Each structure stands twice: as structure tokens, then as C-alpha cells.
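Quick check before the chapter quiz. The format below is the same one you will see on the exam, so make sure you can read both the input and the output lines.
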Amino acid sequence: MEEIEDPTESLHEHIHEGAHHAEAEGNKWIVYVALTTAIIAVLSAITSLLAAHHADESMLSQIHASDQWSYYQAKGIKTEILVSDGKLLKAMGKEPIAADEEKIKENKKQQEEIMEKAKEAEAESHRDVEAHNTLARSVTLFQIAIAIGAISILIKKRIYWFISLGFALFAAFFFVLEVLGR
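Here is the expected output.
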């Protein structure tokens, strides 16, 4: 999974420019929009990093699970070869090799342990994917909040700033949900 980009850099510049002009014109609320938008941008960046981290961890866990399943299959193949050898020896009227019988039991026990590790790694991968998805939602909402904040400055309407703050609060909800949920 790839890292979530933050396409709002040019918006930040425009907002800061607007804030400087607003101070000169006496529109103090635009300064607050710029300040809150900068804070939202920082939260978006942090959330984006966490989302990317969980995407990477998910992939690593899935690779680990795949490795374990391959190891499980290799043990199964070795066990089946030993079982077949024993059957051939019995068919030829000979006694199966005792060490092979022990190895079959040992391989089956190891397969159970390997299966548990594989399932744990798969579960961890799924948890990280869920965390990534939750944080990706948060990043998206933070970016929408930033864009609406820019719109409020462009059209000089405070209501859009409040809408922007609403989106930011909703994004913060997903962020806190994931961070405290772990």
C-alpha cells in the first residue's frame, strides 16, 4: 500500500497569504481560519504517517503469514513422503523405520504450531488493514476540512470555516478512535 499524499500544500500557502491580507483589512477571523487550518494540516500529516505505518505493518504480517503457510506445506510434504515410504516398506513385507514414525509425529506437531503462527500473523495483518482504513478516512476528512477552510477565506464566509471545523472534529474522532482503540 502506498503512502497517502497531502495535496494541500498550495492551499496552505494561499491561506497564509490571505491571513496576512486579512489582518491588514481588519478581518481577524481569517487569521483564526489560517491558524486552525495549519493545526489541521499537522494533524493530517501525523495521521497520514500512522496510516502508512499500518499499511506497511499489514504487508509485513501478511508476508510472515505466507512464509509460515509455505513452511506448513513443506512439513506436510515431508510427512507424506515418510508415510509413503512406510507404506512401501509394509507392502514389501518389511517393518517401517521407527525413526520415520517419530519424525511423522514430530512433523504433525510442528505443523500445528506453524498453523497457529500463520493464523496469528494473518489476524495481525487484518487488524493493521482496519487501522489503516480508519486512519485513511481521518486523513481524507482532515484534507476536506483544509479545503473548506481555504474556501471560507476565498469567499469570505465564516460559515464555511465552521463547516471546516466540523469536518476536522469528525476526522479527529476517527483518529482518536484508532489511536485509543489500540
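If your answer matched, good. The chain has a mean pLDDT of 89.
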